[in-house]
Amino acid sequence: MLEINNIHKTFNLGTINEKKALNGVTLYLDEGDFVTVIGGNGAGKSTMLNAVAGVWPVDSGSIIIDGTDVTGLPEHKRASYLGRVFQDPMNGTTATMEIQENLALAARRGQRRGLKWGITKAERTRYRDIVKSLDLGLEDRMTSKVGLLSGGQRQALTLIMATLKKPKLLLLDEHTAALDPKTAAKVLELSDKIIAENHLTAMMVTHNMRDAIIHGNRLIMMNEGQIILDIRGTEKKKLSVEDLLQKFEEVSGEEFASDKALLG
């Protein structure tokens, strides 16, 4: 479903601030894979996700989604392949619009717009049923402005919007980092449920080692713009944080230096 072939990306090339963010990253995801991505600050986690999303062009290499080479496509033309949930709960929804209006926007993504009633009665019923499945009590607030919701409620709604049309690939970029632990656990539980029920292919960047181990069927660790560990199946299920730290030190020759990940 996703092929990342030897991609490189350097920012501020030729300046004093030159930074090699991706250094020959190669990664293949089968349909239905749920991959968690862990690494220290500057390891290249979010840069890789943004490269897949087309936020910026890569210097070399290729990115193929479901057999289509999207390497040269700009961000807005890749949107039909992708669902995305960002770290900031404010980024995935339109605050001044109602819950049901946000869902209608997501449902109509990629379609032509005409001069007809925005949301039909059947759609209202469908959206209410979908939101009710979140178990957050939002089904009785469908006409509320999204800006009035909590961060966790907005992230849950963003998850629904990002997967309403079953994307080829779901990208979760530290989507629980801005939430309190209890709310983050709820959103992660919802993420697992949506991915499993829709048999989605997903990639989740996280700073939390325990979350990276618990969720998904495959774990990737990055360091200095490269993938240094790729753990899956039974081996992943048996992992502990201590095991992961030891593996990192064995492969990289250095200690894992991310307080955020360790404390998480």
Give an overview of the whole structure.
With 264 residues, the chain is an alpha/beta fold. The protein has two domains: 1-81 and 167-177 and 198-264, Rossmann fold (3-Layer(aba) Sandwich); 89-166, no CATH class. 35% of the residues lie in helices and 23% in strands. It has a six-stranded mixed beta sheet with strand order 6-7-8-3-9-10, with helices on both faces. The chain is globular, with a radius of gyration of 19 Å. The model has no long low-confidence stretch (mean pLDDT 88).
Under the CATH scheme, which class of the largest domain?
Answer: Alpha Beta
As for the CATH topology of the largest domain, it is Rossmann fold
Q: How many DSSP-defined strands?
A: 10
In what range is the share of β-strand residues? Answer: 15-25%
Shape, principal axes of CA atoms: globular
- Count of separate DSSP helical elements: 10
* Count of domains: 2
Give the helix/strand class: alpha/beta
How many strands, which pairing sense, and closed or not: the largest β-sheet? 6 strands, mixed
Record the strand order, biggest sheet: 6-7-8-3-9-10
Radius of gyration: 19 Å
Which secondary structure elements does this structure contain, and how are they paired or packed?
Elements: E1 2-11, E2 19-29, E3 34-39, H1 45-53, E4 60-65, E5 68-69, H2 75-78, E6 82-85, H3 99-107, H4 121-132, H5 151-163, E7 169-173, H6 181-197, E8 202-205, H7 209-214, E9 218-223, E10 226-232, H8 233-237, H9 241-252, H10 259-263
Parallel strand pairs: 3-8, 3-9, 6-7, 7-8
Antiparallel strand pairs: 1-2, 1-4, 4-5, 9-10
